[in-house]
């Protein structure tokens, strides 16, 4: 994938200077193009959200969906967020794009609820500049009012690395969001350097254990022990745990044994287009009834 290659060149180009000029030119040309097109992506209506179900491990009921952004480029096809979110961040385009994502996810969830589907929360990823922008709390409040979505049905995901930035500022913002009634979860937990003792004072509801731990959990008793103790400690601090990137039935069995609350991954479902997600939510009533 050309975009992937471009992104990794950019990343490695930063840490070492072994690249020849021609390669640098090629790379900056690609990035310039991508940036120029990203500026127009919103007005051209090329962005869309897909939704990945989050499942209650014990009952199998869908309890939430994570909104994941996609860019349908007119020439390059689908571009992954891993390739364009960093550029959106650098150029501050993340502010309008992030607002569009929040608005679209809330409006979609409200529409599903109004259609009578079993209510679930929608999780929206916040990137660092979006989280740090001064108007973020007011912005979220405004979007909830506009869309009519009740705050308890919105969950915001911030990564561990965002949480590690400027503790007092982070806690102030999280408190503001939490006061609105919105839920907060820590995404990709375990990949950074934060710890549960660091996070214990944060007004958060949930940890999402990173896929890397889940990948190794079948073969490695040590990784399993780590996931197990994250779950035990989280529960004793009143936090819920979601396992990310679950692909195999063996992982689900282990998560059941470890009393993990929720799980998300290809085993349950890939991210879905809105209509397909609505179908899954319609089937969900059967499970939810049995809870
Ligand atoms: P994330 O928030 O940790 O999202 C999970 C990623 O793992 C998604 O990739 C999802 O499709 C993928 N995934 C889920 N289950 C499985 C699985 O079982 N196996 C594998 N191999 N992958 C799985 P995606 O959609 O490409 O997103 C990548 C990252 O881009 C996200 O990581 C998030 O950091 C960022 N991102 C995505 N959408 C948004 C958005 O709307 N706003 C912001 N700020 N960032 C976003
Ligand atoms: Mg996420
Ligand atoms: Mg994640
Ligand atoms: Mg992740």
UniProtKB/TrEMBL annotation:
Keywords linked to the UniProt accession: Membrane, Transmembrane, Transmembrane helix
Segments forming domain EAL: 31-285
Top-rank taxon, per record: Bacteria
Protein's UniProt name: EAL domain-containing protein
The species this protein was found in: Paenibacillus albus
Biological classification of the source: Bacteria, Bacillati, Bacillota, Bacilli, Bacillales
Entire protein: shown range: 472 to 762 of 762
């Amino acid at each position: 994938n050309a975009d992937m290659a471009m992104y990794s060149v950019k990343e490695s180009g930063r840490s070492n200077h072994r690249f020849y000029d021609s390669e640098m030119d090629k790379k900056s040309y690609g990035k310039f193009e991508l940036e120029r097109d990203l500026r127009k992506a919103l007005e051209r209506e090329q962005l869309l959200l897909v939704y990945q179900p989050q499942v209650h491990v014990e009952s199998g009921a869908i309890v939430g969906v994570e909104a994941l952004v996609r860019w349908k480029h007119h020439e390059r096809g689908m571009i992954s967020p891993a390739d364009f979110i960093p550029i959106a961040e650098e150029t501050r385009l993340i502010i309008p794009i992030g607002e569009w994502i929040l608005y679209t996810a809330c409006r979609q969830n409200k529409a599903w609820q109004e259609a009578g589907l079993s209510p679930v929360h929608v999780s929206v990823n916040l990137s660092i500049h979006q989280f740090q922008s001064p108007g973020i709390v007011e912005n979220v409040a405004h979007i909830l009012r506009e869309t009519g979505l009740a705050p308890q049905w919105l969950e915001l995901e911030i990564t561990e690395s965002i949480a590690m930035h400027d503790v007092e500022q982070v806690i102030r913002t999280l408190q503001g969001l939490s006061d609105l009634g919105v839920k907060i979860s820590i995404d990709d937990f375990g990949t950074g350097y934060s710890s549960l003792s660091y996070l214990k004072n944060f007004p958060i509801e949930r940890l999402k254990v990173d896929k890397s731990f889940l990948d190794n959990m079948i073969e490695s008793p040590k990784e399993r022990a780590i996931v197990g103790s994250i779950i035990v400690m989280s529960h004793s601090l009143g936090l819920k745990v979601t396992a990310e990137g679950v692909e195999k039935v063996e992982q689900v069995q282990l998560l059941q044994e470890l009393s993990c609350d929720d799980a998300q991954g290809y085993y349950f479902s890939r991210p879905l287009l809105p209509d397909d997600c609505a179908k899954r939510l319609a089937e969900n009533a059967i499970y939810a009834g049995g809870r």
